[in-house]
């Protein structure tokens, strides 16, 4: 039975990418959109606060990204922890219900979107086909719960056992909540990656997962640990079906994808932030060099695809407009690829396709 579960998990992402034409679009920044719709997120729970204060806004943001072209929507559970909810005065039972609710709201949004497609409502690309959509249950790092800007440098007091004990119950709940996969996001160090990998095995989690790390220098993860060592941990776990980078400036992505390719053959997921800098003390984003507007994201996509990535989206400070631009770029790429294949007398290899398609 165990072998069967792992084998089924390993095919989900490859089958999904095949249905999407080889490349898929992930959604974008969540808190950014919640704030734009009026949510006040200056709170230790951050976007998870809206799970009980304004779930209709959570649903609205999911729908906005689906209409923008996303095929993977990530739940508002990044900052949702049992410990964090209890600290706000909720019971453990209420905390667990809110974790499940994060997935329920995303699934509700997907059904609303599918219903509109069935009724013939057109999206921005004039497409009424019912593309596959996955719901990914987000799990943020221990550092996200601390909200102290530690960047994964937890110190000797935080051990592998500490991290596993912290994440275990949340993982158990989200894995049985109806999500299609678990998204371990913004992983800051190899210790936390190891904790996740061991938990997936120990708990015999029967849905697949992806690991996405973040970097501030384009070489290592934010704690200073080697990206190669971190990716190797993910690669060795059979339940991990994709590996990548999130919440990292776009200018670092290309080199990081090339590094990831050295340590794994699994699909690579990338969803960078806008390039702005987060000030943990002020709890706000500030302008900095390297900020990327929506049009620039599109110009990067071809390079990231050529380097080896196959899932593209956005993180903090990106919007549905960003995802719409990425979606249109991917639709255009697939259309060109089909035309190229149809006009060639023989099956082209991937190198030929890329040289023909990308500037």
Structural features, described:
The protein has 359 residues and is α/β, with parallel strands linked by helices. The chain is built from 14 helices and ten strands. It has helices spanning 2-19, 31-36, 50-53, 55-68, 82-87, 92-118, 142-146, 160-175, 190-202, 227-236, 253-263, 294-307, 320-343, 350-357; strands at 24-25, 72-74, 134-139, 181-187, 209-213, 240-246, 268-271, 277-279, 284-286, 309-312. The N and C termini lie far apart (48 Å).
> How much helical structure, as a percent, in the residues?
40-55%
CA-to-CA gap between the ends? 48 Å
What's the CATH architecture? Answer: Alpha-Beta Barrel
Outline the biggest β-sheet: 8 strands, parallel
Share in β-strands: 5-15%
What's the CATH topology name?
TIM Barrel
In which order are the strands of the major sheet placed? Answer: 1-10-7-6-5-4-3-2
Low-confidence stretches: 121-128, 350-359
